[in-house]
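Quick entry between incubations.
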Amino acid sequence: MAKQSKPEKTPRGSGNGLSRRDFLKGTGAAVSAGVLVTEDLLRAQGQRTGPVVGPGPVPITLRINGQPRQLTVEPRTTLLDALRNHLDLTGAKKVCDRGTCGACTVHLDGRAIYACTMLAIDAARGQEITTIEGLAPPEQLHPVSAAFVEHDAQQCGFCTPGFVMAAVAYLRQNPNPTYEQVTHALGGNLCRCGTYMGVRHAVVEAAMRGKGGRS
Amino acid sequence: MAETPKPPAQATIEWPPAERRRLIGQRISRLDGPAKASGRAKYSYDVNRPGMLHAKLVFSTQARARITAIDTSVAEKMPGVRAIHLILQPGAEVRWVGQEILALAADTEEQARDAARAVQIRYEPLPHFVADVPPEQAGADRLQQLREQTEGDPEAGFQQADVILEGEYGCPVITHCCLEAHGQVTEWNEDNLTVWASTQNVSGLAPQFAQGLQAAGIPVQASQVRVLTPVMGGGFGSKFAADTWGVACAALARKAGRSVKLMLERDQELLAAGGRPSMYARVRVGAKRDGILTAWSSESWGTGGPSTAGTPNLPYVIGAARNPLLPKRSRHTAVFTDIGPARAWRAPNHPQMCLITMCALDDLAAKLQMDPLDFFLKNLQFTERPDVYREELLKAADLIGWRQKWRPREEALRAKGPVKRGLGLSLHTWGGRGHNSNCLVTLHPDGSVEVALGSQDLGTGTRTVIGIVAAETLGLPLEAVTVKIGSNEYPPSGASGGSTTVGGVSSSTRDAATNALNQLLAKVAPALGVPAEQLEAREGRIQVKDDPSRSLTWKQACARLGTTPITATGRTRAELISSGVGGVQMAEVSVDVETGIVRVEKMVAVQDCGLIMDLKTAESQCYGAMIMGICYALYEEKIMDALTGQCLNPDMEFYKLAGIGDIGELVVHMMTGPGYDERGVIGLGEPPVISPGAAISNAVANAIGVRVPYLPLTPDRVLAALEAKGGAV
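Done. Structure below.
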């Protein structure tokens, strides 16, 4: 899934533990100061940083579902808000808006992330973003989505796209999981209607059909 | 064109007999499943309109205060701000942290958030009271006694008792925490308003918007308000109203001349848009040595914030029968607090009443040294459905292995190692019936079929049930029917509350589809050479009863309509529905007596609900309800700080819900067949969410030998109960 030709890659590893947005929220400082402080902080952690941008809206390009998408966002705009408010990609849902519930899960270079805890400008470094809209061609269902329908792994459905995205990313890592492993792997998503029984069955069945990992 | 012959009059209608049902009662996937699981379903939160503004609320930071000034001068001048709408005026009193004061709209969500922060509200603080405490710890002006009732002679009953149990039980305020926050998108087209609302009340919202807007000086009639809710992200009883934010959103759109989206942020959602009242009780209950109950008395209280939030009727299920009457006395006092107002939460009052009753009875069984299964079986004559509960108790016991696994409390605690296991059970009940529903069925000349109702699907499967009933009635496959719900332009259907939706929509759809079919049969009868009464719709054909050789395909039959479709209406039909279910749940838990952590290992739900329409979504209701029950049994609590009046956990990190790893193994058994099916349709949304708290609490008591009196059963409470008992051994 990850393209070798990408000029820039997402920083991986422990650096991702720091959510820039949480830091911004926490400071309550003016946005421009927040961005500068954040960049300083990242520099201090030894991470590479991009050019200082903002505080006003900046043009960026996001690679979403295989297409470059140009938009203009404030540097503080999250990837989730960029998708939902600027690109009308509303499959990723806004629920907790602070990295707890997983309803906004998308893929960044094939890896599941919470779109509410990443800034859009940080996702604009050439990474491949996949939203649930990009999982399957229009009018078709991804096998994991189809398994969710078959096992009624959804009620109101508001958490469902996040679960599907988390499950698809997980099945790429582990194409033959047990129920216990699925239960562990999907611990980062919350449902209020109580669809977890269906989710377990759906993900294991999608895996058994051997199609779960492919999009 | 020849005049359409009159369809045969039909006094009563019925469900098809078991051997004729092709769809009803089968396991059918929900119709909107593909749209939801692919992210294509558009919720209100997902509606983006051209030029749409984003709105944010400014809410009270004080639990109780008078607003002395609202200064929007800075906010007004901020970039992108287009309109401000005051919900409260200076001089008004705020009654809880999170109460809506004003709303403003700006070009972007970020700008709206900035401007909301820049609004200055000045308060004159007033004394507040947010503590969830017994009446004697609250001021007299904070109390209202709602009930004092005696039936039979409880004093005599207690004198006859060989054993009397006294205990205190209860559960705190919890919230709804709908994943799709409350809110809507509003858009004006001249004097007509369109609202994409996340609501349980599509057909009932327009008058509320009209009334609210008129009060805000915007003249609009209910007939000018269109409400759309094709899908919605959870309600659980909290989404019946237009709410101040709905009216504010429409007012902002009017002022700005642009469409406006206003969805609550998560903190507001938890502070102001949901709440289940707390309930606590001091209980006294007596029984003879053989376990037969002799008397009950309880003094209960609870808070629903600034409102009374309903009156419990204790004891619950056991003791509800009129004959034999369990002598009983109960008193309930509402305690008013300055927290967000309660809203109906799935099975209002029942989970709380169930917890108090079933835990007290379980403790009494322990005091009698009886197996609670035997004890409950012995007292079923005090319920309104002894036969149903007996059957369900025995089935549940079988499914969880009660007879093999159950040990008395002391014995369970003597098990080796720090992790102890226990079993608990609970019974519940709910009403049902059907709300007023109107349905319009249209049969088009090309054979296509539309069913339209002003109802909504909260995720319960309403849309699918409507399709099943229409297709079954018309002898068509499910795919042949287009179900249209989620708009108040369709015939009005009641709000989805109290498990009344399935009764309403299934019977109105059966009625309308039957009426439409009768018109069609009358139309094609001459072609088949028999009276319409001798025709039936089966497997995609209109045929002479029991003679499929004389038939028309559905398409051929509809083609005889020429250019005019058949339309037929239907309404809620009492003969197709019923009210009153039982339900039994059993839980097996493990408790680590060193850490206090409780895990649900297994839960069994045995549930009746009359004639089941869709077994798959019915089971989902039960699974979901058990999981919601595990959430409130183990994790959920709206924590208020008495000193500051603030809620300490208005977010999803600290307002905890169960994750997929917290639920153990769940088993659902639906009671179907003779004895159940002929009752007709009964709602299922509420019943299975009632028992989990009690069943889990009883299982924990069984595991550790002592009652943890209050939910949620958090480690600190478990350890405190063990300490009070003198340790784990």
